[in-house]
């Protein structure tokens, strides 16, 4: 029988080696995320961008790999793409504003007013929608908004009717879907705001409005900014909810989907995807200019 | 303001963009020549010479309703007998539009496809399917002769598959809310339709042909002969009609489950459909009926084709033989609501009048049904002008949907 070496005396060769070679250590730590980032993430994006500058055989739909600016030109000059893009920005902005309006009081109540136990319950409640699959939620809303759905059934006695399948329905559903992404960052930043600051502001004679403007808002602005990045960019790219509850409406995401997965014109779809990416980048720059990102 | 770190980052971004554009230029010059001109003739592939041993699996991509294993409805099953008989296990993917079938076929993940005319020719020219050796088909002799040797299944005398069957896109309506019962497509197109907001339409560029067909009947001045051969002026007129229709449309559909649900809930009252969807809706108790309107209709003529270099080619041929046999043809024709391609199927349908109702052998009837095909610059009606091609149709369709 071989002698049993006590665990502590065994040389940890691997860890000793890593200790002596900080470069290898760093490499081992970062290789997986870097591989993911460059191969899966950047390469996929780069391929998409490349496709935007190729064209497609009008009959066989085969990609023709010759540099052309046709698609970009078509996207920029065709009025319909402009109007769809503007409408998409409009929907994304409305959803973002609605999310902020709904999330602020909810997060404030959870962070500052509720008792600790209720607070935990509230956080769980805010997160519950995230536990269900996106599709389940979107289909649930399709059922709610349908002609014979619950919303019409409730409104009917009052002589009203629901929004049906329309842009309003899209805004409603997207707001519902993305609200948790807005509540959480605002809650976290409110949680960091010491109660004593609120008291001090009140003691110095500030009304609620003034306290909110000059004490609360500057502190939670980064949270709002972070949340709005989620809600805005998720809304910009969404097409499933739109196709389920949008009726005959469509947004940029649908046009991209129809052209790429639906077998339309892949290079044109890629060029439209570029538009979407550029808008989100512009939005990020805008948020950065407000200085909100520095505080994250 | 300009700190060194910031400058460095800017440089890095600049370098990235620069290298990306280099890659772009390189790719552009490398592959440019090899790919151009691919549409002139189909690639020179050869068909399977003789059948070998079955591989044990076959990956089928088909229209919903063509491949049933009893899971959709009890007793509707022609997959299980095939699997037992041949040992080829069937895995099925369905699609909602021909464009979708074409895109999915491009992935190389499938062995055999039921392709409509607006996909089959593209599949042939794009090199995604192999020629079909008709000597290995057990039932080709029994196929209606007006389905054989057509532009969507044969190129230069080379056959690319076995005809599956044909049918017309129908007008479905809610019998309780739509009164009087329609006999024309008009309530789905005209601005004064009483069903505004409850009309449905097919969500694909090929639906432009439906608009063109309606214009053919209502605006003879436009001179539309074949709804797939539109010059620029005619396409513009069709686009205008589709934009007018958009005001009436509650929902577009390409997923048949969506339109089924929409009709069943009363969200949609009238619009284009397939017979199989009507069957499903009626089974579920929805008050709907489907008719072939007076203006005629667009339709489909499908072909079973085998993927290029399919690793399961023997099972694929076995499947095509199974699916074109009289018994299975009768089952599919009744389930999907179409005319079978195999003449002998007409003696085996549960409803003995099925083939009469669906005009299986009625050559004159099919002259008024315009099978889906891909529009090209060469006008399908033989006119000596430049017709709009499918890319133009896609662009027009994008404008309709985005308007």
SSE layout and pairing:
The complex is a heterodimer of chains A (296) and B (403).
Chain A: H1 13-20, H2 22-52, E1 55-56, E2 63-64, H3 70-77, H4 79-113, H5 116-131, H6 134-145, H7 150-155, H8 167-191, H9 195-203, H10 208-237, H11 240-245, H12 252-260, H13 266-289
Antiparallel strand pairs in A: 1-2
Helix pairs in contact in A: 2-13, 3-13, 4-8, 4-10, 5-8, 8-10, 9-10, 10-13, 12-13
Chain B: H1 4-35, E1 57-62, H2 80-86, E2 89-94, H3 98-105, E3 112-115, H4 117-125, E4 154-155, E5 158-159, E6 162-168, E7 170-174, H5 186-189, E8 199-202, H6 208-218, H7 232-246, E9 249-253, H8 256-265, E10 270-273, H9 275-283, E11 288-291, E12 297-306, H10 313-323, H11 326-337, E13 339-340, H12 354-357, H13 363-366, E14 369-371, H14 390-402
Parallel strand pairs in B: 1-2, 1-3, 8-9, 8-10, 12-14
Antiparallel strand pairs in B: 3-12, 4-5, 6-12, 6-13, 7-10, 7-11
Give me some keywords for this one.
heterodimer; A: 296 residues; mainly alpha; MetI-like fold; two-stranded antiparallel sheet; 13 helices; 2 strands; globular; B: 403 residues; alpha/beta; D-Maltodextrin-Binding Protein, domain 2; 2 domains; seven-stranded mixed sheet; five-stranded mixed sheet; 14 helices
Can you put this structure into words, describing what you see?
- Chain A is mainly α.
- Chain A has one domain (70-295): MetI-like (MetI-like fold, Orthogonal Bundle), CATH 1.10.3720.10.
- Chain A has helices spanning 13-20, 22-52, 70-77, 79-113, 116-131, 134-145, 150-155, 167-191, 195-203, 208-237, 240-245, 252-260, 266-289; strands at residues 55-56, 63-64.
- In chain A, strands 1-2 form a two-stranded antiparallel sheet.
- The radius of gyration of chain A is 26 Å and the shape is globular.
- Chain A starts with 12 loop residues before the first helix and ends in a 7-residue tail after the last helix.
- The mean pLDDT of chain A is 88.
- Chain B has two domains: 57-167 and 300-370, D-Maltodextrin-Binding Protein, domain 2; 170-273 and 375-402, Periplasmic binding protein-like II (D-Maltodextrin-Binding Protein, domain 2), CATH 3.40.190.
- Chain B is 37% helix and 16% strand.
- Chain B has 14 helices and 14 strands.
- Chain B has helices at residues 4-35, 80-86, 98-105, 117-125, 186-189, 208-218, 232-246, 256-265, 275-283, 313-323, 326-337, 354-357, 363-366, 390-402, and strands at 57-62, 89-94, 112-115, 154-155, 158-159, 162-168, 170-174, 199-202, 249-253, 270-273, 288-291, 297-306, 339-340, 369-371.
- In chain B, strands 1, 2, 3, 6, 12, 13 and 14 form a seven-stranded mixed sheet that branches.
- Residues 13-39 of chain B have low confidence and may be disordered.
- At the A-B interface, helix 2, strand 2, helix 4 and helix 12 of A face helix 1, helix 3, helix 4, strand 9 and helix 14 of B.
């Amino acid at each position: 029988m071989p002698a049993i070496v006590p665990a502590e005396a065994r040389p940890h060769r691997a860890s000793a080696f890593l200790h002596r070679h900080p470069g290898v250590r760093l490499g081992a730590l970062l290789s997986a995320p870097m591989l993911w980032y460059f191969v899966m993430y950047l390469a996929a994006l780069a391929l998409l961008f490349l496709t935007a500058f190729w064209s497609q055989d009008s009959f066989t739909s085969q990609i023709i790999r010759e540099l052309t600016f046709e698609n970009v030109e078509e996207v920029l000059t065709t009025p319909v793409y402009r109007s769809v893009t503007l409408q998409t920005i409009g929907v994304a902005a409305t959803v973002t504003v609605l999310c902020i309006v709904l999330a602020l009081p909810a997060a404030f109540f959870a962070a500052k007013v509720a008792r600790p136990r209720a607070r935990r319950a509230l956080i769980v409640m805010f997160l519950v929608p995230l536990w269900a699959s996106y599709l389940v939620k979107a289909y649930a809303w399709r059922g709610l908004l349908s002609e014979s759905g619950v919303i019409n059934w409730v409104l009917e006695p009052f002589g009203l009717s629901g929004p049906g399948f329309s842009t309003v329905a899209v805004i409603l559903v997207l707001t519902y879907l993305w609200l948790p992404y807005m509540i959480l960052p605002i809650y976290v930043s409110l949680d960091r705001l010491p109660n004593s600051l609120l008291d001090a502001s009140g003691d110095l004679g500030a009304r609620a409005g003034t306290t909110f403007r000059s004490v609360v808002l500057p502190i939670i602005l980064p949270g709002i900014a972070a949340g709005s990045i989620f809600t805005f960019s998720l809304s910009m790219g969404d097409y499933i909810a739109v196709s389920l509850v949008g009726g005959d409406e469509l947004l940029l995401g649908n046009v991209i989907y129809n052209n790429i997965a639906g077998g339309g014109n892949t290079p044109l779809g890629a060029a439209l995807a570029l538009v979407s990416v550029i808008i989100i980048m512009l939005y990020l720059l805008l948020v950065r200019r407000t200085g909100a990102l520095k505080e994250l | 303001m300009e700190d060194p770190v910031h400058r460095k980052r800017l440089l890095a971004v600049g370098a990235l963009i620069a290298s990306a554009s280099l890659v772009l230029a390189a790719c552009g010059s490398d592959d440019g020549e090899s790919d151009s001109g691919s549409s002139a003739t189909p690639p020179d592939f050869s068909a399977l010479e003789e059948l070998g041993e079955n591989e044990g699996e076959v990956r089928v991509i088909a229209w919903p309703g063509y491949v049933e294993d009893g899971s959709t409805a009890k007793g509707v099953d022609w997959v299980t007998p095939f699997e037992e008989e041949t040992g080829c296990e069937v895995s099925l993917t369905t699609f909602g539009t021909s464009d979708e079938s074409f895109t999915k076929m491009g992935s190389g993940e499938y062995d055999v496809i039921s392709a409509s005319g607006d996909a089959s020719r593209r599949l042939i020219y794009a090199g995604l399917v192999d020629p079909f050796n008709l000597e290995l088909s057990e039932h080709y002799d029994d196929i209606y002769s007006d389905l054989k040797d057509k532009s969507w299944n044969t190129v230069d005398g080379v056959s690319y598959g076995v005809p599956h069957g044909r049918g017309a896109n129908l007008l479905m309506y809610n019998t309780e809310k739509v009164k009087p019962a329609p006999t024309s497509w008009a309530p789905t197109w005209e601005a004064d339709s009483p069903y505004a907001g409850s009309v449905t339409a097919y969500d694909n560029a090929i639906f432009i042909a439906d608009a063109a067909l309606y214009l053919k009947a209502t605006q003879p001045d436009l001179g539309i002969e074949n709804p797939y051969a539109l010059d620029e002026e005619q396409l513009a007129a069709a686009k205008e009609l589709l934009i007018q229709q958009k005001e009436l449309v509650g929902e577009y559909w390409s997923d048949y489950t969506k339109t089924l649900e929409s009709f069943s809930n009363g969200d949609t009252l009238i619009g284009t459909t397939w017979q199989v969807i009507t069957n499903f809706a009626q089974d579920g108790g929805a008050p709907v009926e489907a008719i072939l309107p007076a203006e005629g209709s667009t339709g489909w003529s499908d072909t079973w084709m085998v993927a290029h270099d399919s690793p399961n080619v023997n099972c694929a041929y076995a499947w095509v033989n199974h699916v074109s046999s009289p018994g299975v043809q009768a089952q599919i024709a009744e389930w999907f609501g179409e005319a079978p391609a195999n003449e002998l199927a007409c003696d085996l349908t549960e409803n003995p009048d099925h083939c009469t109702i669906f005009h299986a052998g009625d050559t004159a009837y099919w002259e008024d049904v315009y099978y889906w095909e891909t529009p090209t610059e060469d006008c399908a009606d033989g006119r000596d002008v430049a017709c709009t091609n499918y890319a133009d149709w896609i662009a027009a369709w994008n404008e309709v949907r985005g308007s």
